[in-house]
Automatic annotation (TrEMBL):
<keyword id="KW-1003">Cell membrane</keyword>
<feature type="transmembrane region" description="Helical">
    <location>
        <begin position="91"/>
        <end position="114"/>
    </location>
</feature>
<feature type="transmembrane region" description="Helical">
    <location>
        <begin position="335"/>
        <end position="363"/>
    </location>
</feature>
<feature type="transmembrane region" description="Helical">
    <location>
        <begin position="401"/>
        <end position="419"/>
    </location>
</feature>
<feature type="transmembrane region" description="Helical">
    <location>
        <begin position="55"/>
        <end position="79"/>
    </location>
</feature>
<feature type="transmembrane region" description="Helical">
    <location>
        <begin position="310"/>
        <end position="329"/>
    </location>
</feature>
<feature type="transmembrane region" description="Helical">
    <location>
        <begin position="278"/>
        <end position="298"/>
    </location>
</feature>
<protein>
    <submittedName>
        <fullName>MHS family MFS transporter</fullName>
    </submittedName>
</protein>
<dbReference type="InterPro" id="IPR005829">
    <property type="entry name" value="Sugar_transporter_CS"/>
</dbReference>
<dbReference type="Pfam" id="PF07690">
    <property type="entry name" value="MFS_1"/>
</dbReference>
<feature type="transmembrane region" description="Helical">
    <location>
        <begin position="244"/>
        <end position="266"/>
    </location>
</feature>
<keyword id="KW-0812">Transmembrane</keyword>
<feature type="transmembrane region" description="Helical">
    <location>
        <begin position="155"/>
        <end position="178"/>
    </location>
</feature>
<feature type="domain" description="Major facilitator superfamily (MFS) profile">
    <location>
        <begin position="17"/>
        <end position="427"/>
    </location>
</feature>
<dbReference type="InterPro" id="IPR020846">
    <property type="entry name" value="MFS_dom"/>
</dbReference>
<dbReference type="InterPro" id="IPR011701">
    <property type="entry name" value="MFS"/>
</dbReference>
<keyword id="KW-1133">Transmembrane helix</keyword>
Length: 443
């Protein structure tokens, strides 16, 4: 094979991996967001009946947070297998774990049928979902990064990130379509189970795609016994814990704002402001569409500007947007809310498109899956995982959305400070340790 043929074959495989990462990530995030949407709209009544709807919402968001708590564990466990035995096989396992748990949620009887066992089973499935997703994100980003041309990492690295808004769109369209087709009462009673059960078909699609891709060439070379790390998590915790902490604080701001927009606003708008749930879902979908279509553009800009620079500019804009978000929602002005939700898509996409590659490049190749997964999932827990729960609790305690705005402002400023502390070497734009050739270990 000539060098030209080799480059052409490599580019083809890189595109194929990027598409597989996008589709697979979309399926897994569909599963994850489907639960989040149901937690905001249905689960408080079906699994946590209470005379006070606010208390039921706090309990439902508590199970949402449980999935985030298990995501760092999933990142460490699945990351170990991804660094030790291969990215591709671990991604297949994460897809099966996530999909089968989603189907199981659609089969759980409600509180009225089996009592306290219902929320216990729901929480257990959510925890296992979190383990699956904890391994999914890191594997998809790392595998795509390791196939991508070095001058197009931002563009290719945006592909698995695009699965987030795509999964959000698919989950909300499923809920919205079934609500309109069945009626709100029927959907809240039993129709909510259908989109969970449909995940069985999505598993088949995802499995087909993931079985067709190749392991990354960089990992295949690394997988020699002389250089392969026997216990990746030990090296991450002993030698790279500072990188884990820095990456966590970079991630936390984006995740916090995203889950106020994607999840909390559905509950807040419906229960507190009495805004039509269909309008809220359409607004979230509209914002997610903008998020999805703009991601490749931000990825390309990251390749030209530098990932850190793009993330910093987007971080400042995101903080300003977060300050205005809930005050705009509080106006109850639907056209204004809708336009503002669309703008959210552009703002979140600007930082979200680059954060995957930035995080992965902060770790050496031999522990990249474990390190990036652990860092991102801990950051997501501290950001998106607890934010809807904190927001619901703050609203109940203070009676004003300003307390929530101040909270996400503080988190956003922490994230900006962490990003400003990164150097070009930290994110792979200089001669970083993460990109140097691994040296064989002495035996």
């Amino acid at each position: 094979m000539t060098p030209t043929d080799s480059r052409t074959s490599g580019s083809h495989q890189a595109r194929r991996v990027a598409w597989a990462a996008f589709i697979g990530s979309t399926i897994e995030w569909y599963d994850f967001f489907l639960y989040a949407t149901a937690a905001a709209l249905v689960f408080n009544a079906q699994f946590f009946p209470s005379a006070d709807p606010a208390v039921g919402s706090i309990a439902a968001f508590g199970t949402l947070a449980a999935g985030f708590v298990s995501r760092p564990l999933g990142g460490l466990v699945m990351g170990h297998f991804g660094d030790r035995y291969g990215r591709k096989n671990t991604l297949i396992a994460s897809l099966l774990i996530m999909g089968l748990c989603t189907v199981a949620i659609g089969l759980i009887p409600t509180y009225s049928a089996i009592g306290v066992a219902a929320p216990i089973l729901l929480t257990l499935m959510r925890v296992i979902q979190g383990i699956g997703l904890g391994g999914e994100w890191g594997g998809a980003v790392v595998l795509t990064l390791e196939h991508a041309p070095k001058n197009r990492r931002g563009l290719y690295g945006a592909a698995p990130q695009m699965g987030v808004p795509a999964g959000l769109i698919a989950a909300n369209l499923a809920v919205l379509g079934l609500t309109r087709a069945l009626g709100e009462d029927a959907f809240n009673s039993w129709g909510w189970r259908i989109p969970f059960l449909l995940s069985l078909l999505l598993i088949a699609v995802g499995m087909y795609l993931r079985l067709s891709i190749e392991e990354s060439h960089a990992y295949s070379e690394l997988a020699e016994p002389a250089v392969r790390q026997k216990l990746p998590v030990a090296e991450v915790l002993q030698e790279h814990w500072r990188s884990v902490l820095r990456a966590c604080f970079v991630v936390v701001g984006n995740s916090s704002v995203a889950y106020v927009f994607m999840t909390y606003v559905l509950s807040y708008g419906k229960q507190t402001l009495h805004i039509d749930a269909t309008f809220l879902l359409l607004s979230v979908i509209g914002g997610a569409v903008m998020w999805l279509v703009s991601a490749p553009l931000w990825g390309q800009l990251g390749d030209r500007w530098g990932l850190r620079r793009l993330f910093l500019v987007g971080g400042y804009i995101r903080v300003a947007w977060a300050l205005a978000f809930l005050p705009v929602v509080d106006t109850g002005n639907k056209p204004l809310i809708f336009v503002f939700m669309l703008s959210m898509g552009l703002v979140l996409s600007m930082t979200h498109a680059s954060v995957g590659v930035m995080t992965a490049l902060m770790f050496p190749l031999k522990i990249r899956y474990t390190g990036s997964s652990a860092a991102y999932q801990i950051g997501s827990l501290l950001g998106g995982g607890i934010t809807p729960l904190v927001a619901a609790s703050l609203m109940k305690a203070t009676g004003t959305s300003m307390s929530i705005t101040l909270y996400i402002l503080a988190v956003g400023l922490i994230s900006l400070a962490a990003t400003k502390g990164l150097s070009r070497d930290d994110v792979g734009e200089g001669v970083s340790a993460a990109e140097r050739e691994p040296q064989p270990q002495k035996v």
